[in-house]
Amino acid sequence: MSTEVLLEMKLNSTHVPTLERSTGRARLIVDGSPFLVRGVELHNSSSSSPEAFRNGLESALTVGANTVLAPVSWETVEPTEGTFELAQVTHLIESARSVGLRLIILWFGAWKNGASTYAPAWVKRDWTRFTRCVLEDGRLTDTLSPFTEEPLDATAFAALMRHIEMIDGEQRTVLMVQVENEVGLLGASRDHSHPANAAFAKPVPQPVVDALASRPQEALGANIAMWPELLPSPDRSDEAFMAYGIATHIERVAHAGRQHSALPLFVNAWLDSDIDVDLPGFAVAGGQRPGIYPSGGPLPHVADIWKACAPSIDLLAPDLYFGDSRTIFGNFLDASKGLFIPEMRRDVTGVGHIFEAIGEFGALGVSPFGVDSGSAEDLQSLTDAYDLLARADPLLSDAAYSTGQQRGFFLTDQQPQIDLVFSTVGMTVTRMTAIGTDPIGTCAYGIIRELGSDEFAAIGRGFKIAFTAIDGESNIGMESVQEISGVADARSGRLLNGDETAGGTTWIHPHNEPMSTAVFPIPMGHMHTGISICRIYPYPRMSPQLV
Fold this sequence. Notes:
It is a single chain. The chain is α/β, with parallel strands linked by helices and 547 residues long. The chain has 2 domains: 3-391, Alpha-Beta Barrel (TIM Barrel), CATH 3.20.20; 406-546, Sandwich (Chondroitinase Ac, Chain A, domain 3). It contains 14 helices and 25 strands. The chain has helices at residues 3-11, 50-63, 74-77, 87-98, 121-124, 154-168, 194-201, 206-212, 234-258, 303-309, 325-336, 348-361, 380-391, 393-396; strands at residues 18-20, 27-30, 33-34, 37-41, 67-73, 102-112, 132-134, 140-144, 174-181, 265-270, 278-279, 282-283, 315-320, 340-344, 365-368, 406-411, 417-421, 425-431, 444-452, 455-461, 463-469, 474-483, 495-496, 507-509, 531-540.
């Protein structure tokens, strides 16, 4: 059988991981079933040596991840133009497979974090053939311009995707591939190179005009036929131009790979933010002006342009470190009809965002960054969180895609309490603190799944729940609270009552560590598996004899 025939068979295989959107929110289907990515993204250089990658796999296993996100770079795949070195890719796939982990490959090609440092030497040294972006004041950058006729990394990406299919088409260790990383231009709102200026002087391409047609008229400029007047703000017109240019070139890259593999493709975004993070010599986040954050990146406010110009991309994904998580998750979910967070914090705040993303927004996966450099103490909350999600997976596998059946929350000083409404009952969820202690600085996170009209499952730590009847005419009592050690053995935990339910009045999920207090002499237990099922019942507010 020829290589071409074999590749065609694998391309059309029903076993290819896919994004399924029949319910309006994308879920990742692997081996015929929904798959929740409990991921870890390794440090940028951890996949460049066998020893470092082995350490990364060990870290992933330690925290209970099921998927590793690891970079593959253009400079290693095509060190000489037209010559492809793919032994590293084979090693990554076979190593992850050997320890039972799945793999998401991050392609660091023409752009990574608004720069082009992962381009091969034959590109970096050729300033004539490969156009660089120019800032508004004429300064030349080392960032490749997307306004070029050169294929840049498209050929190398096609070779990568072809190789993945050839060596992994049966086992399907690789789940998805990220195309580039946090693309965009830093230092200016648009590229001022000669090719870019020529493109900027031309009429706005019809696909962009069509994409913007659904925007309200007040959001458009006086003349949507030309780039400078496309939007009311010059910065935003520039950003739209960069989104068009970058997305168009990424489509060239993604389309080249799509000829060899049907694996889902996504791009990730360096977010704009109200929070300025000032670390000398190291840009992290911050700023509302394009160019302070990478101009043209796949942010929700230019998602219409991205979708029109890069149809081969399946998801736009946020890298979350700062900002209003609920707004960010909601905006990216709306933009992509699916949510995946390929990069986020690994601390307890990141854990809170994990539960919020999965429980409230139906995220198909999450992936804290830099787990391979974390100590056991650093990773304690994440390890516990992934243990909870793994044990609760049968409860959660379909819940995120049924409207009104699942809610997620992250409670902090900014939002210490949240009211949730289900089909038959309301819940007030509050952070737990030790009696007589100041709650400042504590957090709580969880997912509530409605199993039936009178039965609910909870997964998480550090909260308590009070029930209210939504009809306003009844009280709600707790029939039973069953602690769950593992969903497969539902009765392996304790039957909770007494102090563990505040005298039968409150559904309690304590923190994962003791909470002592000097003002309350009775010891309060903190032992809890983090998963429980509560059955409730209504009863009249007034005695029937008195009505």
